[in-house]
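queue> holo job accepted (protoporphyrin IX containing FE)
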Amino acid sequence: MTARMSISHRISGVLLMAGSVVFALWLITAAFRPAYFDMMMALVNTKIGTLAMFGFSFLLYYHMCNGIRHMFWDMGFLFKLKNAAIANWVVLLSAAGLTFVTWKCVCEYM
Amino acid sequence: MGCPKKQKIESDLAKAKGLGSAHHGAEHWMAQRVTAIANIPLVIWFVYSVMAMKGASHAEFTAYMAEPYNAFAAILLIISVFYHAVLGAQVVVEDYISCKCFKMMKLIGMKLFFTALAVACIFSILKIAL
Ligand code: HEM
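queue> job finished
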């Protein structure tokens, strides 16, 4: 479990990089190619676009929470197997919770 | 990765060269943490902004980005996240690609690409905001 969490941190980091290229294009098209900007906004509004945004948000939260755990490790905490196992669940559940709250807000208020 | 390996005995220095983080391990590591901490508030701002911009028109988006606070946060986000991501990806490349010349090509290409992308982003923000 802890090993799987570790490789997922790496995978999530690399996927976030791919996602950040898309967000960069979003910004660049907004400045220089408004027609493509509108196209990107329309794409996000499709089912696949929404799913991609959902996935990105979870990966981002997961990477953030696990990154914070990484820094606890660097400071020498949470090394005991039992604590590491608890931290796995804290990270996963916080990421899931943050994703849930975000999308609940998106659905209700945005 | 099918790259011809030199068969002669290398000095330790020659071995260490080209092994990436072997040169500046500590600085690299530190920069990764500093940007990781900076990323936390910036990413929260980013998520909020993307939520606020759901279904926004081009005019609404540019009006939002032109707000000084938002332009400021966006530029910080670009610098911190891209720097963090390139540092991170560097470690990934170093870990998985064993051929030296191929590794160097990847690292240099990646850094050039993300630097260019970051500059393009900052330029875009300034164009919208100013
Ligand atoms: C939200 C705040 C973030 C925090 C707290 C964070 C934290 C961290 C930490 C502590 C590491 C080092 C892990 C290690 O030493 O093994 C790391 C690695 C990495 N991060 Fe982040 N990060 C964040 C956001 C991002 C974003 C937005 C991206 C991509 C655009 C990203 C991409 C990466 C990559 C590619 C790695 C390297 C993975 C590896 O070496 O296995 N991170 N992150």
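queue> The mean pLDDT of chain A is 92.
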